[in-house]
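G., the chain you wanted modeled:
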Amino acid sequence: MDTQDRTEHSGARGAPLSVAQAEAALVEHYPRLVRLAFITLPPSLGRHRRVLAAHGLVQRALPSLRTTTGRPAAASTLPAQRTAAPAEGAYLTLRARVLREALTYGKRPAWWPRHVPRPERLRPLLPAVWGLRLFPAAGGADELALEQALSGADSATRAALALRRVEQLSEDETRRRLADAGVAEPALALRTAERLGRQVLGEPGEGREHPLLSGEFDPCFVHTRPTDLLRRRHRVRTAAATLVVAAVAAGVLPVVIGDTPRPAERTAATGAVNASIAQRVLDPRNLVRPADDEWADTSRVDFTVWPARGDRVDDLPLLDRALEVWASPARTVRISSTPGAGTQPPTAPPRLLYAGDVDGTAVVLLNDGDRTIRYAEPADGDEPPALDFARTDDADVVTGAALVVTRDGANTRFLLAPWIDETTTRDLLEPDAPGGKLGVRADGVTDPVRRPGAGGTCDSWPVLQLRSSELIVEKHAFLLTDLGDLAPVHLTYTPPPGSGAPARQPREATSAAALRTWARSACHLPAMRGFGVRAVNNWVYAQQTLPEAGGRADWVCTRADTWRGPGRVMVQLHLPATAPTALGTPVATAEDTASCSRFGQHVLAGANWRAPKSGTWYLLAAGSRKVRTIEAGGGLKAEARGPLLAVRAPQGVKAELRAKMADGSTLEGMR
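Predicted structure as tokens:
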């Protein structure tokens, strides 16, 4: 299919897609199209409705008869094909229409009145099945695990995984097809899908069929069961009785609506909350509200001392809905959580951090000590509420300085801690440019800040530069960046080692040297999204003079620490460059490691380098300050005294590096 996809948009649109071509392609590839729609559709529909919706989307993808006239619709034209036959081109067009409809399924049409809350009533009635429930065949452990993982993913991620593993498209083609279908960030959706697949199934094996190709995800091969017969009979009788009463009364019957049930009446639904404390825990009147100035009179400066802010902190119905959804979310609620952040209900009254309206969304931020929870309720009621969980335990004056309130398109608004006195923004890719002023509302919500990497590009990287109140730390400025979680990520910098100096500690990345290093590293940050990252440090652990007067290179270890504890490490080689934003070259990576932290202060890595003048290839290697000798083995034998090595080597040589440390121990090179 890769060849076909490469030709789909290779030229201008060609001849109209005839109904005969489309029908032939639809019949031939019907199971594939229905499987693609079934995987992409929201799991909140349930398996029965999702099966019917998938068949409906594919059947409605057939173009209208207008395509046979002289005035074809734009959506029914066939892209010009260089190598694909007409039938193949027809399939590509049908697949694009099915994918686009599945991604937008259930969303309010642009022409639909905003005051009408349920656009799903506009969905076609056919196909329909009465008295039976349909569901695909049950799969094994892999299929069940993948289904559970997909239930928490967004539609773009599900579509990306389906295109890669069912349609077997390349990564480039998958990104293009997602973009054509209207996905705002196709590259992010693809990375999320690949990571989700690896987390659930591990690396794909040779000859191993992907679970998405199994019967668990085949809506053309289904089992049937009756609906609840007793309930159906009861409903029929109730409906008949209602009609009789209505005919006899021929008037308007008074309807009595009771009060919204209090949390104690919802105890049975919460399940995870002990019945004896549910009323106290889930009652919005018992939310913890620290005093406005408590942060200035305590030694613990984190989310636990944030005051409750926002114009709806006293809106008990809103707070009650937020707690109810947290305790017992409906299937339609969109739930996300960072790694290590559980989604279980609270066991004690949480703290209220914020409740207010931001960009047409009612937002409630809560904290239970270990987690921060964001409840977002769209004002127009077209979309279900969203519930986001983030692990934020052991926060401090910096990592507890801001939270994301809303993300709208390419912009983000933050809620700042009460101890922030000065707010600016700056672009990491313009290290010499001054910061710009950032407006903050009276309730602590910032003006919109452009999201880093919005649109899948890295032409800028906006960050927050904040300064703490002198009541906390005198003249303390620091950088935060948005990597997709509720809590923004703290950026730090460790300078290169001095001669005979002890190990240096990370410091704030606000100096000129730090900003120059981050200008060459910022575009590597997207690879760290989705891992619950707390802080990222750039450590220039070595500096090396290159052979043949090639200038000076910096060896940089970039470490991302998560809220859970494990870290991810990437070693970069910053070669001399004319552009201050020339991206550093990754030469080694490691996960779940203590390297480049205070618990793993030794590092060794190498890279191949070509001298620009002579074209000669060299093996370069550099170790941290306590490395006494470096040995290269494997494809090349070499040795150097001290923490640096540079020897001529064949192009592409794979050397195994090993270092002797000052204490006599051995350090293996990172790969």
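Residues 61 and 94 are 6 Å apart (CA to CA).

Shout if anything looks off.
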